[in-house]
User: Fold these one by one.
Assistant:
Number 1:
Amino acid sequence: MDSDYPLEQTPAVRRRNKVREAILAAAERMFASEGESGLSIRRLAEEIDYSPSAIYKYFGSKEELLEELKDSFFERLLDRVDGVSAANKDFHDRARACVTTYVATATARPHHYAAAFSSVPTPEELAVRRHLSWDDFIATPKGQAFKILVDLVEEGQALGVFDPALEPVKAAKSIWASSHGLALLMIHMPILPDVQPCPTQTDGDFVAYHADIVMRGLAVPAEPPHKNGTR
Amino acid sequence: MDSDYPLEQTPAVRRRNKVREAILAAAERMFASEGESGLSIRRLAEEIDYSPSAIYKYFGSKEELLEELKDSFFERLLDRVDGVSAANKDFHDRARACVTTYVATATARPHHYAAAFSSVPTPEELAVRRHLSWDDFIATPKGQAFKILVDLVEEGQALGVFDPALEPVKAAKSIWASSHGLALLMIHMPILPDVQPCPTQTDGDFVAYHADIVMRGLAVPAEPPHKNGTR
DNA sequence: CTATTTTAGTGAACACTGTTCACTTTTCGA
DNA sequence: TCGAAAAGTGAACAGTGTTCACTAAAATAG
């Protein structure tokens, strides 16, 4: 059971990991520049001087390999947002930074981000996921990222800048949707930010602009004395 | 030049169009249920009892065929939103309906909507699109859909419910991003709407909830007498 | 009505793709 | 050192989109 390598790994597995990393690195390169369709097992194998079948000793399928690329990207995304979320700036700045950092990280690797949200689940998968508990969800990277948003909303409510009537989970979902949408719109339709007749506005500035609008949507309602019929 | 069929088409082209429609109909079926990867030229040809090469007498490539499917879906999306936008309801209801209808139509055909925004443009394509004028843009279906939003914002500003300081084009972009994001989030991550610990809320209701938040983000700022440092 | 040209449609082939599997070679532990 | 386990390979299978020389049928011209 025990070996001569109590903490270090045995040279065999170190070599193996090295090959595995080489595969992932090459795959990362190809995927980042050419996307999912540009990443072929055969070209990948050629790139690292192995036979195509060798890849299958390290990854069960192309999909499994891709899953690993996406997951590592999502962890990176989470880290980034977590970083700015932890920085002790002014609340408004921090909230805005969460959105802008999210969008910036997403658009920096468009293929990764798009691929991370590319699969349309089948009805069967949907039935499985339907039985996921809240605790299981926030254990995943996506869940953790989501938790950051929930906490942000609650903090905003505690500070009195966000409407206390909002359910934090739903508000967080709204923020995520808005950020997600802007990131994908910039990735898939980069026409829009440029076609506008106000050329003074760059893409990056619009992200902050959008983030401010999103945050404004969660602010405390405008007129307290007025009779407010809706909701 | 002139034929016996001044308004009607000649039987030859009518027959041809019939085959073309049959191809599109079969493609539509396969694509709607199995997505882009499930739509193969060969299976499609088999379905309509033609040889694979016959397809290429009607469509230059698989991509061209897909493009037509996506375009027709986008026109449908535009029609739907245009419909509710033209209905003379209360402004708030109408604005909310624009978002909810958009999201509902998108999620009703998840593969179509996801595919319509799936291509990551290459740097070359990006350079080409960068020289599109505003007029050219709003001539396209996407541009027209966008125009609806711009008009909506301007109307809201005229009614005094939206912040007059907003640039309508940018505000419209913000609305689109938020709607787009919610639609794709519901398509790709249907976990979220269900994992929330408030089971009284159904998906459809959340769309309206989100729409309200989005609209609130464009409303006139809260405190006029207060000193407002930011922006 | 015939001759010619245009069009519709096909089958075989090309160059790919992911994946499997029997097989050899190398490596490692006892 | 020997046997077992692991690493790696080549060939093959079943797909894919696409092309192209070719036939059969229809439309057109004389």
Note: Residues 10, 12, 40-42, 52-53, 56, 61-62 of chain A lie near DNA strand C (CB under 10 Å from a C1').
Number 2:
Amino acid sequence: MEEIETCPAQRLLKMLSGKWKAEIFRLSVESPLRFNSLLRQIQGSNKQSLATALKELEEEGLLEKTTIKLKPLHIEYNLTEKGKMLIPVFEQLEGLS
Amino acid sequence: MEEIETCPAQRLLKMLSGKWKAEIFRLSVESPLRFNSLLRQIQGSNKQSLATALKELEEEGLLEKTTIKLKPLHIEYNLTEKGKMLIPVFEQLEGLS
DNA sequence: ACAATAAGTCAGATTTTTTTGACTATAGAA
DNA sequence: TTCTATAGTCAAAAAAATCTGACTTATTGT
């Protein structure tokens, strides 16, 4: 079903809607993310949902996935430039609470 | 099921999540809202969903419902002070798109 | 008096999101 | 070589959100 976009902020809001995305985003501001640590950090969450959220955040261009080819060869998710542009919005939001 | 709140911005984000809330919020910035007009303005929406969204926005303290006891006796929804505080967040969000 | 408009509610159906549990593939440690 | 960790995927189930259509009650307009 095609959704027409009427409200300009809606797209951005939608980007961060979903049960775990805001939390993932917040943690990504602090440091690079790794799948299994996230799973442990965000209690109540589950693999599938995190995997989906990460994939979507990636598709939206807020996070980028990198394979670190060092010592213990692993995968990292980092905020992109676009993602970083959202930080002030979050800060403002937090200022209101 | 009890949800624990970890991310500070999450509550605010949740306030405006839901298919129609952002749009309703945006329209409320422009002028007071009336149920049936909203229903006509927001194409694709439906009574039930709008009723629920309005009720929730009210509970969250972003909108307030007033019965206008004049000429054609009707009901209006207006942004509260709290609601108005969110305007700059929306503006910032729109600036990014 | 009669029809229309406003502002809903209610139950049930449909859709979307989120969760569960089982399973996979690769790397490193003991 | 066996065990553990990482980083997932897949199908199915469960839960949450949204939509539909019928119905309501009060107020206006004709």
Note: Chain A has one domain: 10-96.
Number 3:
Amino acid sequence: MPARTPTGTGRADLVADTALALLAARGMRGLTHRAVDEAAGLPPGSTSNVARTRQALLELAVRRLADREARVLGLHEMPDPRDGLDALVDALALAAHRALTGNRELTLARYELALEATRRPELRTYFDATGHRFRDQLTGLVTALGSTDPARHTLSLVAWADGLMFSCVAGSYNAEAPSPDELRQGLRELLHGMLNG
Amino acid sequence: MPARTPTGTGRADLVADTALALLAARGMRGLTHRAVDEAAGLPPGSTSNVARTRQALLELAVRRLADREARVLGLHEMPDPRDGLDALVDALALAAHRALTGNRELTLARYELALEATRRPELRTYFDATGHRFRDQLTGLVTALGSTDPARHTLSLVAWADGLMFSCVAGSYNAEAPSPDELRQGLRELLHGMLNG
DNA sequence: CCGACTGTACTACGGATGTAGTGCGTGCGT
DNA sequence: ACGCACGCACTACATCCGTAGTACAGTCGG
């Protein structure tokens, strides 16, 4: 281990976090090896050494994104199916609210990378890891709540939340984030319509 | 008018359409003056002349996008408030289905440009023109249907549809587009939950 | 019939970008 | 104790990008 790097969490993580921050702030065109060096305060060439090619840099960023996003979503504290509808509403509202307030940057970077994954199938892999785990949990929950079409209802829920976040972060409604109460109300309405057709 | 250009709809429109196609196919980093020249089969420098700066090229693309998107959304054939809930469901489902099938490319380009507009406020202007008109129409419709919170419900509807389109076009669920029937069903559920709280 | 004008073709250039190559110092295994 | 491997700093280079400048052809007004 060489002396002491300016970060306590490893060079690669610092590069990855800086890449995500750059994606949010300057978009896909703003993410370059040199820009990461500068933004992270690292000597020129450092990012090239951590991730030699652009593809490697993007994969590093996506991997890191999956880690941090899992924490934002609260993947390991999802409610139990027996906790009922309100627990699900609360968990989803909380996750969305966290994504929109303390993690706006991460959310924006996710959309940038999702679009890029359209053209780079290798990136899709890491997305799907976190994404599928989350969706599977959701499917179990809506099933337990009596959904007659769990797959479609899961997609509906995820799409609603994702679309709302996109609207708030990149849409014309780039006003402030909805309050947790508004989020809960919207989710209750959506779930109510799904479960009492 | 110089002789006959290779397009019948004007040089600027050809450049704008090609720019949108490139955005969908190669992303923001794939959109360059030279790439547009090549993809459109125009002699090198043509795009530079139509839109000298990158900013101008992006504005041209966004303007064109607003035009074409308005047609996809059916902005001028929105149902009358008195036509009832089913007419609204049909109109929205049809619009979403059109966006996902015959206009996937346009939809992808819209997300690219929406993200870019985050960092270029000038682009936001043209988005808001079409977007606000559409939302205002929706607000009128949900109000007529008895919504107790038209603004939030409009946002909910738009977010649901937008999130679904994003999921289908760029998400892990990049499976085929939902059928119009599935779209109608999802919309009915969402509206039912909103209007019968 | 001719001159100004507009849109087009083409070239030039400063700067940035992705990627590869090369020494050097540090910590580790033996 | 000492060579070895590894991560790091730094440099080099070919390519590509945005933008500006200039010359030309066809069109329209007088």
Note: Confidence is low (pLDDT under 50) at residues 1-8 of chain B.
Number 4:
Amino acid sequence: MADKKRELRELKDAAEVARLQELSVYERDDMGFANSKLIQATFPYRDTGERQWTSTNGGMSVTITALSRKHGLPYGTYPRLLMIWLTGKVVENAHSFDPEDPARRKIFFGNHLSTFMEELGIEARYGSHTDFKGNVVESNSMRLAEQIRRVFNLNINIESLYELEDKAVESYTNTLISQNLELYWDKHSSPDQYSLLDSYVVLSEEFFDFLKSRPVPVDLGVLRKLKSSAMALDLYVWLTHRAFYARRPFIVPVPALMEQFGTSLDPDDSGDRRIFMKNMRKAVKKMHKVWPETSEELKTGEKKLEVLPRGKGLRVFPMNPSVPPKKSSRTKKPRRRG
DNA sequence: TACCGCGTCGGCGAAGTATC
DNA sequence: GATACTTCGCCGACGCGGTA
């Protein structure tokens, strides 16, 4: 019985992957956006119980701080999907509204939580129950509602150190994500307030401009296939951006990867580094499956995306973007740079 | 000493099914 | 058909033994 179920799931999975590869992102109407700066820093994978989280990438570090006493830091896959949905909405509003119109910063969630969840690629489930150990198990709709509260009660601090001609530049940006979050739950609807009744968030001016600048196209179909793994989501979005702009192959050492991704493991601990890379191998395998170019072999036998043995890190060769420019062919070779 | 492979655990998310 | 409850599977994390 279990084997049969697994078999059916694998068949379904294979059909979905085949569809991803047969149809372009435009034919599937699956294009979304991520922000190029937020790609380089992520949310934690689990509830850390802390009120602050920092991730570092080279000269840039991003610190998120929970502002609500009641709701802590966002974690897991939902806030990641939420940020991609939000970036898409911002890009859309930036094009359809007058740049001076404050209404462009007002983002509606829609009338129903289930519709909103569908937009994120999550099937709506409701209610909660107590498991045999007495723990309360919340449905995904309740978990998403909690992550919405957490994401929109954050402050983001970005610190960058870089060189510009003969100057060393320090840059500090502090921004609230939202200026105002209004969630209207329908009390007459069934137990856990399923109707959102035109709930909305008003993004802060700074955060709206931040998301609007340098959006990176991502394939929502690929994201849906990866959505059960926060690490795989991070890897895909990061790779989409990083591999395309790379001029030559590069290796990211394990501690650097750990500082950037959402793990709470210690980069200075060899055991933790090993655990992290084991998980990274799994994420890379998923990537090979849903984004075939990452598993392409070069004449040397090296794959374009590969975890190196003996804890050397992750090696990446330049690749086409996951979402190619509309006019170009999907099989186009990476452009030559430098 | 560092890395790898595997088993286990608790948490999270998805899916099946019952109920209204 | 929508909602509520239950179970299952996958994930990250942890621990341990084996290997180079």
Note: Residues 190-194, 328-338 of chain A have pLDDT under 50 and may be disordered.
